[in-house]
Amino acid sequence: MSNALAIAHVTQALALLIETNIGPETDMAVKVEARRPPAEPSVDQPTISVFLYQVTPNVSQRNNDLPTRAGDGTLIKRPAAALDLHYLISAYGDENELVGQRLIGSVVRALHEIPILPKDIIELAGEKPYLAASDLAEAAQRVRFTPTVMDIDETSKLWGMLHQTPYALSVVYQAALVFIDGRETPVPRKPVERADVRVLPFGAPGAPRPGGGPGEGAEPQEATPVPVEAAAAAPPAKKAAKAPAKTVAKAPARARKTTRASKSAQSEPRRGTES
C-alpha cells in the first residue's frame, strides 16, 4: 500500500531501471527521460523516453476493498485504489547507425531479465526531492512489468494522441500492481462483550421441538443450561413403532368356487316332473 506519489515514483524508478541496465552492448552515453516523446528529437544525443500515457483500474483487485463504509457512512475499512500503469518507451538516435533499434533491444532485454521493480531502485528513485514523501519502498506488493501487444491500428491511435510528435520505434509495457491508500483512519469496531453459548437436547425445558417452537398449550419456560457432556451422553429419542397393518385372510380358491355353485343352485326354481 502506498500514498498518492506511487504513480510518479514508479515512473521515475522505471526510467532509472532502464538507465542502469543499458548494458555493455551500447558504447555510448544514453539519456533516459521520464517524459513524453519529444516533438523535435535530437539525432546527435541517443535518448530513451519513458512516457506514462494511461492509468487504468486493475480488473482483479479493483473491488477487493469493498465495502469501505457502513450504512450510516462510518468508515470501516481504509479504501485502496488498485491501478495498472501503461508506458510507452521510445528510443531516438542516429538512424544511420541504428541507434534506436539498439536501444530498444537493450530495453527489452533489461525488462525481460528484471520484470519486477527492485527495492534498491525504488529507494534510489525516492531520493528525488519531489518524491521524498513517497512510501512505495515499504509496499508489500512489488510492481511487475509485462509487455503489451499492440497492432497497427492501436499503435496508430496511440501516436495520434501525441499531437505533432513524429513516430519513433517504441515498445509498450504495463506495470501492475500499484495500490494507493486513503488517508482516513477506520473507526474500530466494538468488541464482543459477552459470549453465551448453550447446548440443549430436544425435549428439554425451553428447547425447540423438531416442528419448531414450543408445544401446543405449553408455556415457554426459561432454558436451563445443560453441560455439553450430558447433552452428548443423552440417548437419542426412539421413534414410535408403527402398528402392523391388518391383513385379511383370503379364502381358498376351491372354497370360493363351492360357495358360488351353491348360491346359484338355490336361486334356480324347481321344475315339476311330467308323468
UniProtKB/TrEMBL annotation:
Pvc16 N-terminal domain residues: 9-193
Biased composition (Low complexity): 217-252
Annotated region (Disordered), positions in chain: 199-275
InterPro entries hit by this protein: Pvc16_N
Domain of life: Bacteria
Record's protein name: Pvc16 N-terminal domain-containing protein
Annotated source species: Streptomyces spinoverrucosus
